Amino acid sequence: GAGVSQSPSNKVTEKGKDVELRCDPISGHTALYWYRQRLGQGLEFLIYFQGNSAPDKSGLPSDRFSAERTGESVSTLTIQRTQQEDSAVYLCASSLTGSPLHFGNGTRLTVT
Amino acid sequence: GQQLNQSPQSMFIQEGEDVSMNCTSSSIFNTWLWYKQDPGEGPVLLIALYKAGELTSNGRLTAQFGITRKDSFLNISASIPSDVGIYFCAGGTSYGKLTFGQGTILTVHP
């Protein structure tokens, strides 16, 4: 597709359940990033992929958060045992190495 | 984690006025970028700066990469209603990881 695609666009889940968020980057983009944006805040870095490897996962807030990337394409961000504090918009971005990031429209996660 | 100080937090201006916002950091960045975010959408790149001292324009937008590599500003001239949105600065590392400011909410009154 023309841009970064994320699904679902909205997700409401009960506290304690696991969720999976998906990102389809722009075709050919080797770098992929996950960010979290809490209401009224800036974006917080979570994890960076170069190809299928994650050389920087320093932003993952706890071991409940994990991410993987396959085929140097699709990435999934998994949050286990969700907590209310996990409610936020999760944004994915991709880029060619050294080029600016292109963002998707995000997944709005609400934990009730 | 690392934060950028972005100001002002919000601005209310009349259509046709010029706008200026800036970001400062205690850390040096390799790149500075400015993004605009509309409700329900991801940030969209406005201007990317790659060199200390660089001054770049994109239509009515002008941005500069501070000479110390710790700051940047964005100017919008002759604002129009569609300029409404949240503007974010971001400092970049060598491999593209970005640290974002808290955003400036811009409201333009017709």
Keywords:
heterodimer, A: 112 residues, seven-stranded mixed beta sheet, four-stranded antiparallel beta sheet, B: mainly beta, six-stranded mixed beta sheet, five-stranded antiparallel beta sheet
What can you tell me about this protein's structure?
The complex is a heterodimer of chains A (112) and B (110). Chain A has no helices and eleven strands. Chain A has strands spanning 5-7, 10-13, 19-24, 31-37, 43-50, 53-56, 65-69, 75-79, 88-95, 102-103, 107-111. The radius of gyration of chain A is 13 Å and the shape is globular. The model of chain A has no long low-confidence stretch (mean pLDDT 94). Chain B has strands at 5-7, 10-14, 19-24, 31-37, 44-49, 55-58, 61-65, 71-76, 85-92, 98-100, 104-109. The termini of chain B are far apart.
Task: Please give the structural blueprint.
The complex is a heterodimer of chains A (112) and B (110).
Chain A: E1 5-7, E2 10-13, E3 19-24, E4 31-37, E5 43-50, E6 53-56, E7 65-69, E8 75-79, E9 88-95, E10 102-103, E11 107-111
Chain B: E1 5-7, E2 10-14, E3 19-24, E4 31-37, E5 44-49, E6 55-58, E7 61-65, E8 71-76, E9 85-92, E10 98-100, E11 104-109
Parallel strand pairs in B: 2-11
Antiparallel strand pairs in B: 1-3, 3-8, 4-5, 4-9, 6-7, 7-8, 9-10, 9-11
**Proportion of strand residues of chain B:** over 45%
What oligomeric state do these chains adopt?
heterodimer
Termini distance of chain B?
A: 39 Å
How many helical stretches of chain A? 0
In N-to-C order, the SSE pattern of chain B is EEEEEEEEEEE
Structural class of chain B: mainly beta
What is the average of the pLDDT values of chain B?
93
